[in-house]
Automatic annotation (TrEMBL):
Top-rank taxon, per record: Bacteria
Residue stretches making up the Gfo/Idh/MocA-like oxidoreductase N-terminal domain: 2-121
Pfam families in alphabetical order: GFO_IDH_MocA, GFO_IDH_MocA_C3
GO molecular function: nucleotide binding
Annotated InterPro entries: Gfo/Idh/MocA-like_OxRdtase_N, Gfo/Idh/MocA_Oxidoreductases, GFO_IDH_MocA-like_dom, NAD(P)-bd_dom_sf
Name this protein carries in UniProt: Oxidoreductase
Residue ranges occupied by any GFO/IDH/MocA-like oxidoreductase domain in the UniProt entry: 130-248
Organism the protein comes from: Paenibacillus ferrarius
Length: 324
């Protein structure tokens, strides 16, 4: 039975704990929060788990086989460094952070230890993404159009630039990662962002609430991704791929529509992608076989880099080259 600890005590810590508890090869042994009280709230719900407000104390006491990191973007760094120093594999929720230097530093530490890592780009594990990937083997992509159009999450860290990094880094990163997974690497990024509305509704909103980002891909294909968080409701998130044989529409990461000249085919997800993500990670820990992990730290850094380049471009007004 694998002993899993979870750092973070919010919505997604709870979601991962639920999925882990349903498995018969793993149990959640600890939660680490910013306060013991917060960690206790979750620990009470998962029998046999303990609450901590200090990561190293938890590691010394519980000796977990792996750790799930479910903290906001600004809280990354020390947690990963501590786990890497002790050689403890981790699954970390996207985004990897908000700041390039710290993420690159963690990458170099991960690589020096050859540590097993997984990053929460769960969309890769959907049947929609997998089916699209297969269909694309025999199609030529011209361009992609992606979006994440919704409302602003209620948590305060999300609204601060140095809390979440902004919507493109925090949410739309899923679509950026899907573009990389299906079409390949990004060479150049150009972005325009604006604050149109949300800063007039709530105090201390620093992040842009509309954005449009253009990507040049190494293959020669192009992509345009748009996002907004100024709607009063979640509207849509997804990616459309325009190919020589028709259109592939991945919607809300759970559903694929394949539009050809004479017919339209729909594919629905048969399994929970978060379960598959955990299965791949835990399988790697048990067997050493990492082949089922579809996004590890090194790969996720490339998606992160595209999103931080977009922020840089939105500030400078200039395109940012990622590869020459
Ligand atoms: N893959 C997905 O589909 C998905 C979905 C939701 C959230 N997420 C990601 O998960 C992360 C957490 O999101 P959430 O919705 O759970 O946020 P949340 O605000 O509900 O919870 C975050 C928790 O982390 C705690 N925290 C902050 N700093 C900490 C630290 N240093 N040590 C321990 N705990 C700390 C906070 O007290 C809070 O309880 C975010 O990066 C988010 O993008 C991913």
């Amino acid at each position: 039975m694998l002993k899993i600890a979870i750092v973070g005590t919010g919505w997604f810590a709870d979601k991962h704990a639920d999925l882990l508890t349903a498995r018969d090869d793993a149990k959640v042994v600890a939660f680490v929060g910013t306060t013991v009280e917060k960690a206790e709230k979750l620990a009470l719900r998962y029998a046999g788990s303990q609450a901590f407000d200090h990561l190293e104390q938890m590691l010394d006491t519980c000796k977990p086989d792996a750790v799930y990191i479910c903290v906001p973007p600004m809280a990354h760094g020390y947690i990963e460094e501590t786990l890497i120093a002790r050689g403890i594999p981790f699954l970390v929720e996207k985004p990897l952070g908000i700041e390039e230097e710290s993420v690159q530093h963690i990458l170099s530490l991960v690589e020096s230890k050859k540590l097993i890592t997984s990053v929460g780009y769960h969309v890769r594990y959907t049947d929609a993404a997998q089916t699209a990937k297969k269909l694309l083997e025999t199609r030529k992509i011209g361009m992609a159009i992606g979006s994440w159009m919704g409302n602003m999450p209620g948590v305060s860290w999300w609204r601060k630039q140095n809390g979440s990094g902004g919507q493109f880094i925090e949410q739309t990163t899923h679509i950026v990662d899907l573009v990389r997974y299906l079409i390949g690497e990004v060479d150049e990024v150009y972005a325009v962002y604006a604050q149109r509305h949300m800063h007039t509704v709530h105090d201390h909103v620093e992040v842009a609430d509309v954005g449009a980002v253009t990507l040049k891909l190494a293959s020669g294909a192009i992509a345009t991704l748009t996002n907004t968080c100024m709607l009063p409701f979640g509207h849509k998130a997804g990616l459309e791929l325009y190919t020589d044989q028709g259109v592939l529409e991945i919607e809300q990461s759970r559903y694929l529509k394949h539009i050809e000249k004479t017919q339209t085919t729909e594919f629905f997800d048969a399994a929970n992608p978060y379960e598959r993500e955990s299965e791949a990670f835990l399988h790697a820990i048990k067997t050493g076989d990492r082949s089922l992990i579809l996004s590890d730290y090194a790969d996720a850094v490339k998606s992160f880099r595209v999103t931080t380049a977009a922020l840089q471009s939105s500030i400078s007004g200039l395109p940012i080259k990622l590869r020459s």
